From TrEMBL:
Domain of life: Bacteria
Record-stated family: Belongs to the glycosyl hydrolase 10 (cellulase F) family.
Residues shown, of full length: 43 to 342 of 697
Positions of the GH10 domain: 1-299
Name by which UniProt lists this protein: Beta-xylanase
Active-site annotation: 236 (nucleophile)
Localization: Secreted
Length: 300
């Protein structure tokens, strides 16, 4: 096949991109989106500061725009994200009582997931909860500080009740290298969840890489997580300067692991990227395919 989505579909996988609601009216952007991708992730529109900016008052307009548009075109949607320390409104960070926060967190998860019930392929239930450079420590956040380590389990249990059909993912960065302490910490959590029956279906590897691309053992990491009984996905791929070899290696790592079910790049054109200065994506500022596009396609 000549497009990323169609080629990925030949092995039952998807190839997706992050999408910004404000760019859907840009014809170059939407043409590439619909030609190449069969999955979308709202880049910011489902985050807490976008969906519940004030307590109990929910806004779904911009995210609905993305979801409705994708659904009408047969593209899947990844939900991103329900519980994260960043892009969190100040009122949540200001909560000082554990029971209040637990109720607020559960209500947020339930309300957002209910709104999209049946329409989200995978949800990033918890994003970036682990600290860098440590083996299993969670980073400080209002959730960690008031609810303790159990906040992740609580979030996944609430998510399962809200939409039993959605795959529930833990998503993080710098967990691609198998020997990194952070990777090992997340691995032990997933192993523990599976052993105790805490609902978790997938692990998302953000894959925000430098010019060297993925670590040589990335495929090993994907395979080892998959062996725990979860799907794995590459969820936010971008690579500084987009070297062809680095993209090919990343795609191949996924293709070689049967439970690696899909790849999402974090934007369409370099100018759409949160790392725009590093030109990390598959299309240039004019929407032309870069060399990395062909190397990714060939590796699929
Ligand atoms: C980024 C978006 O791309 C930016 O537009 C926004 O300003 C900040 O967040 N990890 C994640 C994503 O899980 O949600 C982040 O997205 C990039 C890092």
């Amino acid at each position: 096949a000549s497009t990323l989505g169609a080629q990925a579909a030949q092995t039952g996988r998807y190839f997706g991109t992050a999408v910004a609601a404000g760019k859907l009216g840009d014809g170059t952007y939407s043409t590439i989106l619909d030609r190449e991708f069969n999955s979308v992730t709202p880049e910011n529109e489902m985050k807490w500061d976008a969906t519940e900016r004030t307590r109990g008052s929910f806004t779904f307009g911009p995210a609905d725009q993305i979801v409705n548009r994708a659904t009408a075109r047969g593209q899947r949607v990844r939900g991103h994200t329900l519980v994260w320390h960043s892009q969190l409104p100040g009122w949540v960070g200001g909560i000082t009582d554990a029971n209040t926060l637990r109720g607020v967190m559960n209500n947020h998860i339930t309300t957002v997931m209910n709104h999209y019930k049946g329409r989200i392929h995978s949800w990033d239930v918890v994003n970036e909860a682990f600290a860098d450079g440590t083996g299993g420590q969670h980073r400080p956040s209002v959730f960690q500080n008031l609810l303790g380590d159990g906040f992740i389990e609580q979030a996944f249990r609430t998510a399962r009740s809200a939409d039993p059909a959605a795959k529930l993912c833990y998503n993080d960065y710098n967990i691609e290298n198998w020997t990194a302490a952070k990777t090992q910490g997340v691995y032990r959590m997933v192993r523990d969840f599976k052993a105790r029956g805490v609902p978790i279906d997938c692990v998302g590897f953000q894959a925000h890489f430098g010019t060297g691309g993925p670590p040589a053992n990335f495929q090993t990491t994907l395979a080892n997580f998959a062996a725990l009984g979860v799907d794995v996905q590459i969820t936010e791929l971008d690579i500084a300067q987009a070297p062809t070899a680095a993209y090919a290696n990343t795609v191949r790592a996924c293709m070689n692991v049967s439970r690696c079910t899909g790849i999402t790049v974090w934007g369409i054109r370099d100018s759409d990227s949160w790392r725009a200065g590093e030109n990390p994506l598959l299309f240039d500022r004019s929407g032309n395919k870069k060399p990395a596009f062909q190397s990714a396609l060939t590796a699929l």
